Fold this protein.
Amino acid sequence: METNTETNQVTMMPRIGDMAPDFEAVTTKGKIKLSEFAKDKWILMFSHPADFTPVCTTEMSGFAQRKEEFEALNTELLGLSIDSVHAHLGWVNNVREKTGVYFDFPIIADLDMKVSKRYGMLQPNESETAAVRAVFFIDPNKKIRLIMYYPLNVGRNMDEILRALKALQTSDKYGVAMPLNWKPGDKVIVPPPKTLDEMNQRLNDDSCERTDFYLCKKSL
Ligand code: BEZ
């Protein structure tokens, strides 16, 4: 929970299924308003604790190096930290000079912490001055579909971020669910029956790999 100092109202951290709170922000690619950003696309919004720090450099490089994979999944990247746009520019240029990797996506300069507070990225028992490593998966309707939070000392896993995005998109497209460790090409879970009639039908349905009526898998 977060208290808005102007209205004294308590704001809940966004949760899965909530509409992504709208905001305007300055980024390394100019000003954006979330509700007008990346129309009809998925948005992956992620925070990092601070520019010019080692774990963050590896993570941001990971996002940059796999940007084309995100683009192929109709997804725009949007970074954030509580640093100035000048610090962002200096860091982006420094990493490009040192490693050849270019962070070619907008990074929010959240100096007043408005966005990070609203999205629960500031977790004071972890750090009072830096955002934790959050990832918000926002669908084309601007609904939050998945949230990850990592602490300051553990970098995220880019394969898992991409896998989770593909799982969400595949689930939406085919109306199915994804089992443990699902990856593209694996069998998916057929939604379980909700009535006795559907249950009896499922018990006679040989079109899917049935463990029992409530657990059936199929290939796509
Ligand atoms: C890092 O990215 O290495 C880092 C950033 C803030 C605190 C600790 C580590």
